[in-house]
Specification:
This protein has about 400 residues and is α/β, with parallel strands linked by helices. It folds into 2 domains: about 200 residues, Response regulator (Rossmann fold), CATH 3.40.50; about 170 residues, 3-Layer(aba) Sandwich (Rossmann fold), CATH 3.40.50.2300. It has 15 helices and 12 strands. A 6-stranded parallel beta sheet has the order 2-1-3-4-5-11, with helices on both faces. Strands 7-6-8-9 form a 4-stranded parallel beta sheet, sandwiched between helices. A two-stranded antiparallel ribbon has the order 10-12. It is found in: Cell envelope.
């Protein structure tokens, strides 16, 4: 993520924080993950952080996805603007590294922790230490599981994200129109399903939401999962890795579509996976774009490489989760705890982490198609026209 983009995210965060405070109220990877803080920390004397607000630890899972870089920098910018010192760390998708980073944040005297966990079940020891020290823990976008020591959860409505992914797949196949109304197109269409990493609680919400829409069409024969792989354990992608998705798509084409049949659509829960899937399909002779036989492929996070593919008619859709608003909500929650208050939740029933229902604040997401890229992504300042045209963040 280049400097200008980080500045734009920080600028957008200021507006998003204002909205949040008034309302109560992610075909290739970029970046090299070193597991270290990419920001320059301000001293307490320069910003008054330690004196005014103290230190807040921000633990992000990786830098190999541009959305996590943007999230980390946006949270850091918002907290620093509010007068806090920030220890931002990226863990390189390495669980022991993230455990060590959180341990160090606690040792350094963090007043609060904002954690996007690699594995939502793997940091119970760190959470116990935080609770013993009276440090509130805010789970960021990925629900931390199997621990009572999680105070709050900020995320998007992840079940609805899955619903939107499935809806966009049906729109692309012509089974639904853009308004979500059924058409007279009856299929059958061959589709394949992909899910995220089983150690990420969100993967289950995405998949369940999607299947709530797709299952009736599978049952009626309008959609056919030709591989027969319909359980999340069969279709999961460890660590959300693009290469893993590409290999699985290649294997499906070899094992299931070697009889002259064609794939018509692929449910993909994340843009990185989508690009791997698309690469496998193109290498097998599909495409290059939808008009030339590329199957309908969904996605999530509005990563700039995939936004360009959508603009170019290669990938069909993605889900835009404005992470500037998510970062702002994490800042609002942290400020509430450090002021001795409880942050406002708009969901106190859905997110059971196996030990407790974690009070949550859910944000809304949008489906991005080629014809609304400008409206949703450019006009909002998330990406520029030049970035969409090049497929590269500036």
């Amino acid at each position: 993520m280049r400097t200008r983009k980080i500045a734009a995210v920080a600028a957008g965060l200021t507006l998003a924080m204002t909205v949040a405070a008034c309302g109560g109220e992610g075909a290739g990877d970029t970046g090299t993950d070193t597991g270290t803080d990419t920001g320059t920390e301000e001293t307490a004397e320069e910003e008054g952080g330690a004196e005014e607000g103290g230190l807040i630890g921000v633990a992000m899972p990786t830098q190999t996805s541009e959305r996590w870089i943007a999230d980390g920098e946006a949270v850091k910018a918002g907290l620093e603007e509010a007068g806090y010192e920030v220890d931002l760390q990226f863990a390189g998708d390495d669980i022991p590294v993230q455990q060590q980073q959180i341990d160090q944040m606690i040792t350094k005297g963090a007043a609060a922790l904002i954690i996007a966990a690699i594995d939502g079940t793997a940091i119970s020891g760190q959470l116990e230490a935080a609770a013993a020290a009276g440090i509130p823990v805010i789970s960021y976008d990925r629900l931390i599981r199997d621990s009572e020591n999680v105070d709050f959860y900020v995320t998007f409505d992840n079940y609805q994200v899955g619903v939107q992914q499935a809806t966009s797949l049906l729109v692309g196949l012509g089974i639904m129109d853009a308004e979500g109304n059924e058409t007279d197109v009856a299929g059958p269409f061959n589709i394949e399903l992909f899910a995220g990493s089983l150690d990420d609680n969100n993967a289950f919400f995405f998949f369940e939401g999607a299947m709530s829409i797709l299952q009736p069409y599978i049952d009626s024969g309008v959609l056919v999962v030709k591989s027969g792989q319909t359980d999340i354990e069969q279709v999961a992608t460890l660590r959300w890795q693009q290469e893993t998705a590409q290999k699985r798509m290649e294997d499906l084409l070899t094992s299931t579509y070697n009889d002259g049949s064609k794939v018509n659509g692929v449910l993909s829960p994340y843009d990185g996976l989508s690009r791997g899937i698309i690469t496998a399909l193109q290498n097998a002779g599909y495409g290059p774009g939808i008009d030339a036989g590329m199957p309908i492929v969904t996605g999530q996070d509005a990563e700039i490489a995939s936004v360009k593919l959508i603009a170019d008619g290669v990938q069909f859709s993605t889900i835009f989760k404005d992470t500037r608003k998510l970062a702002a909500q994490a800042v609002v929650a942290a400020e509430a705890y450090l002021a001795g208050e409880e942050p406002e939740a708009n969901d106190t029933e859905t997110y059971d982490n196996g030990v407790k229902v974690v009070p949550s604040y859910l944000l809304e997401s949008d489906i991005v198609y080629a014809d609304n890229i400008t409206e949703l992504l450019v006009d909002s300042g998330y990406w520029s026209e030049a970035e969409v045209e090049s497929g590269v963040a500036e």
